Amino acid sequence: MEINRTNPVQIVGGFDRDVTIAVVIPTFNEADNIGNIVQQLFALDVEKLGVLFVDDSSPDGTGEIADELAEQHPGRILVAHRAGKLGLGTAYIAGFNIALDNAVQRVVQMDCDLSHPPAEVPAMLDALVHSDVVVGTRYSDGGDVDPNWKMSRVLLSKWANFGIRMILGLRVHDATGGFKAYRRDALEAIDPECLTVAGFGFQAEVAYRAQQCGLTIFEHPYTFMERTAGKSKMSLHIAIEAFWRLTLLRLRRN
């Protein structure tokens, strides 16, 4: 899947001027999780934090719930509605651009399904004091995956991660992870408009772009937990497509 840059976006809610941290969360059929993640994020001891949802017209009503949450938390939640399922990468690009347009100084990206623990967000933000980008990692000392994962899932994840690291020459241990934090100037250097991979491989492209830009990257270990509600979007087909797209990316930029 390639990037389509003509997607219309409808904005509901918005950020007060004092919101300087935006947590960008793409959603598709996350009605069972979205309220929980908002509750956990706003319970953190983090001032000036807002949540930016990018919903791809979820048929389960996720977008409508997000709008209700924006009404309940005025000035702290912004919802971007897009017309259809358009890919994880395009959702993040839209969210990053909206965050930058709202003058936030730090941006966190994470999944809505609570596989990325909100409790790790304060430590990742603290790490931005001495780094440009923070990458949450499952595959370095202190990191782990849910002990209840089936071996097939563990092997698929590790195989995809190792292969993508080799293809792109990435130094980070977790090339495929979607739990990251950025300083504003780092995200501007990466330049969301330069990103080209719309699907699963988007996460690796961001890490590759950050490495190319010479940004300081800090790896924060965490334990990736399996979602407790909803259905995972990951599959072998998605991983194979990512390999293909990222191979083409490396060849173009060599």
Commentary on this structure:
- The chain is of the alpha/beta class.
- Helices cover 37% and strands 20% of the residues.
- The chain has helices at residues 34-42, 62-72, 88-101, 121-127, 151-168, 184-190, 202-212, 236-253, and strands spanning 9-15, 21-27, 49-55, 76-82, 106-109, 133-137, 144-145, 180-183, 217-221, 223-224.
- An 8-stranded mixed β-sheet has the order 1-4-3-2-5-8-6-9, with helices on both faces. It has a two-stranded parallel sheet with strand order 7-10.
- Strand 3 (49-55), helix 2 (62-72) and strand 4 form a beta-alpha-beta unit.
- Helix 5 (151-168) packs parallel to helix 8.
Task: Summarize, please.
Helices cover 37% and strands 20% of the residues.
* Tally of DSSP helical segments: 8
Overall form: globular
| Rounded mean pLDDT score | 88
Roughly how much helix do the residues carry, as a percent range?
A: 25-40%
What portion of the residues fall into strands of 2 or more residues?
15-25%
Could you tell me the radius of gyration in angstroms?
Answer: 17 Å
Structural class: alpha/beta
The major sheet is characterized as: 8 strands, mixed
Intertermini distance:
22 Å
Order of helices and strands: EEHEHEHEHEEHEHHEEH
User: What are the segments in which pLDDT stays under 50 over at least 5 consecutive residues?
Assistant: none
List its salient traits.
37% helix, 254 residues, alpha/beta, 8 helices, two-stranded parallel ribbon, eight-stranded mixed beta sheet
